[in-house]
Every structure is written in structure tokens, then in C-alpha cells.
Amino acid sequence: MRPTKKLGQNFVHDPNTVRRIVASAGLAESDVVLEVGPGLGSLTLALLPACRAVVAVEIDPVLAARLPRTVGERAPGLADRLTVVGADAMRISAEQLRVAGPPPTALVANLPYNVAVPVVLHLLAELPSLAHGLVMVQAEVADRMAAGPGNKVYGVPSVKAAWFAEMRRAGTVPRSVFWPVPNVDSALVAFTRRPAPADVDRGAVFAVVDAAFAQRRKTLRAALAGWAGSPAEAERVLAAAGVPATARGEQLSVADFARIAQAATP
Ligand SMILES: C[S@@+](CC[C@H](N)C(=O)[O-])C[C@H]1O[C@@H](n2cnc3c(N)ncnc32)[C@H](O)[C@@H]1O
């Protein structure tokens, strides 16, 4: 096969890395694992003995068609634990996965790098059954996903990820374990879902986050003026939320953003 860059096809050929990913994922025997982008199946083969079932979502029809055969040849005793769904993980619905079997409880994936953040956010939003997981992503993306307020790489992905789960870095992975070798290093991010930080519409909170970081260097009074309708209204909402109007988005936690959205909700 010829790997395509567009689909982020860099395959892990190192058995130690694959074992490390599975060990770091902290799977229980009862877990149903959602694997995004199984590719040639190296991670899939290591996941199957460690959990109850694997649902593998692969966008590339050639790879999706080939995977059951690979598992049938390499791990015939475990082949009935695998379901392959040929689909785009960024758009997949809970309903599409429901027909594939029991709801997935864990996400474990070596993600296609160009869409890693939107895939993780989409799956956490769409599948409330996902309680924990471990993903391999580009090292800089891992930093951003796990960053807290005040960190220089804290931004939209950090806050949105924190809405759904506690995210933490779980080690780095050298580029040499991939074929073809990518021009970036990778890192692991582990997560555990947590209750939503507030009883407020997620879309409303994310709209505040997008507005606050669209003009990162500005104070919230200025950055949120367009979102609120005017600088005065932004100031009123911020005061009601107990957030200083002179603060910047990069200083706020997801709970602060939730309070701002709540204060703006009639
Ligand atoms: C980085 S490779 C990982 C392959 C394999 N898991 C491994 O570790 O060797 C990413 C995989 O995701 C697939 N992929 C890319 N975009 C996708 C999408 N939107 N939905 C599902 N799979 C996707 C690619 O075809 C590729 O197989």
C-alpha cells in the first residue's frame, strides 16, 4: 500500500510502543474500546486481548476492508471481538456505532494528526459512554490539549477538552517508531471524563471561548464586545460572572467561561 499524507497515515511498526500505549490506557477487561484509524492493525491486535471488544472506525476503505482478514490471520481466537466500521470519525454518530455493538467505554487511538482535536471533541460530545481514553497525537497538540490556564499554549482546544474531561500528558513517542517517519514528534494524552463544569448549554460556553481567544491579546471587555453586543454589555456580563473585565481569556478556567455563558443567558 501507499500511505497518504492527507489521511495522516503514519503507521506504528514498533511493538514496544504499541504495548506501551495499551498499558498506559489502563483498560479493564470489561471495556469496549473505540479505536479511530486502525490502519494496518498493529494497535488493534494489541488492544483485542486487553478488553471486551474493539470497534475500529477507519475512513480508508481499503484498510477497513483488509483489517478483519489481518486479525483473522494473526489472532483468530480474538477475531469475534472486532467490529470494523468504514466511516469518518469526525462525523460518526452514536446511532451508527449503536448498530456496531455495545457503547464504547474507552477511546484508544493513534490519531490522524491533522484532525486529532476535532475528532476527540466530536467523540466526547457524541458518545457519553466514553469514560476514559488514551490518544497519541503530535507533541505540540498534546501540550495544548493538556494545558491549564496561564500556560502559554493554553487555548481553545485546552478549554474545550477540559469541558469534557481531565486531560494529562502521558509521555512522548519518538518519530522513529512510525512508517513513514513523520516530521514531528508525538506524545500520549490520557483522559478521564468528568461531569460538565456547570448546568449551562455547551454551545453557549464554546461560543464565549471562541470569542475570547479570537483576539487573544485583548482584554475580555474588548474581546467579548462583539459576542455580547457592545463593550458595556460585555462588562456587565463579566461583572455578573465575577470575572475581571481586564483579564484575558488565557487566564480563565473552563468553569470561568461557563459562568460567563450563564451570566449572559436570559
Ligand atoms: C496515524 S495513522 C494510525 C494507524 C494505526 N492505528 C497505527 O498506529 O499504526 C491514522 C489512521 O487514521 C485513518 N484516518 C484518517 N482520517 C480519519 C477519519 N477522519 N476517520 C477515521 N479514520 C481516519 C487513516 O487512514 C490511518 O489509518
What can you tell me about this protein's structure?
With 266 residues, this protein is α/β, with parallel strands linked by helices. The protein folds into 2 domains: 11-193, Rossmann fold (3-Layer(aba) Sandwich); 202-264, Helicase, Ruva Protein, domain 3 (Orthogonal Bundle). The protein contains 12 helices and 9 strands. It has helices at residues 15-24, 42-47, 61-74, 94-98, 116-126, 139-146, 156-164, 202-214, 220-223, 225-228, 231-241, 254-264, and strands spanning 11-12, 32-36, 53-58, 82-86, 106-110, 132-138, 165-173, 178-179, 186-193. A 7-stranded mixed sheet has the order 4-3-2-5-6-9-7. Strands 1-8 form a two-stranded antiparallel sheet. The radius of gyration is 20 Å and the shape is elongated. S-adenosylmethionine binds at residues 7-12, 36-40, 42-43, 57-60, 63, 88-90, 110, 112, 115.
